[in-house]
Amino acid sequence: MSILSQLNSPPIYAICGGVVAFVAVVCVVFMVRAWRAGIALGMDKTKMRRVITASVTFSVLPSVGILLGVIALSGSLGTPWPWLRLSVVGALHYETQVAQSAAEQVGMASLSAAEMTPRGFATIALLMSACIMWGMVLSAVFSKRYLKRLGSGGSGGGTGAGFGDRAMTAMFIGLICAYLGSYVGTFVSGGAFPFNGDWSPLAVAGISGLTMAGCLYLSEKKGMAWLESFSIAGSMLVGMAGAVLLRLWV
User: In the chain, where are the structural domains located?
Assistant: First the structure.
C-alpha cells in the first residue's frame, strides 16, 4: 500500500473527521447561544438574520483560499490531515511553510508524494501541530492581562493595540521577505550571469502582490469595502492563473 493510500485510509478520515465534526458542533452551539443572547437583549430579529446572511455570504469566497490549500497539500499529505489542519486551527501560509520546511529537514528535496515516508509524514504532522499551539497557550495565559491593558488605554495612550498592529505587520513582512529571498536565490543560482534560473516564482509573487494592491486600493479609495474580504482568495486565484499561463507560454 502506498503512503498516500495510507494517509487517505478510512481510519485517518474517521479520526480527522471526528475532530472537524466536534468543532462544527461547538460552532453551532455558540451560534445558537449568540442568537438567544441577542433576543434576550432585545435585538431586532430581522437585523440579526441579515447579519447571519451577510456573514455566510462574505465567508464563501475567502474560504476558497483554504480549499486551495487543502488541494495543494493533499497531493503529498493526503486529504484528511490538511482538511483537519485548515478547518480547525491552521492558516494557509503557516501550514504550507511549515510542511515544506519540515520536509526539507527530513531530507526530502520537495514536499511530494514520491518522496514521502511514514517517518517524514509523522515529523511534518508533529511540527505543524506543535509550532502553532503556542498562540493558544500564550493567549490563555496572557490575554486577560493584555485585554486589561487595552481597556485602560495602555501605557502611553493605547500603545498595546499599536504594538499588536506593528508586531503583526513585522511578522508578515518577515514571511514575505523569506519567501522572496528563496525565490531570488532560486533565480540567481540557476546559472551564470545573466541569471538563467527559474524566474516564474518571482513573477507569480509580483502578479499576486499587484492583485492584492489593486484590491486594497479599490476597498480603501473607491468605497468598495466588501472587496477586502475577498482580497486574499482573489490574489491567490489570480496568482495561480498567472503561474499556469507562464508555464504554458515559457
Answer: 3-131, 142-249
d(CA 111, CA 240): 18
CA-to-CA distance for 180 and 95, rounded, in angstroms?
A: 18
Sign of the torsion formed by the C-alpha atoms of 100, 106, 110 and 113? negative
Q: What is the pTM of this model?
A: 0.62
Q: How far apart are CA 145 and CA 139, in angstroms?
A: 10
139 vs 103: CA distance, rounded Å: 29
Q: What is the pLDDT of residues 209-238, one digit of tens each?
A: 899 899 889 988 888 877 776 777 778 788
235 contacts 208 by C-beta, under 8 angstroms: yes
Grid cell listed for 182: 528563496
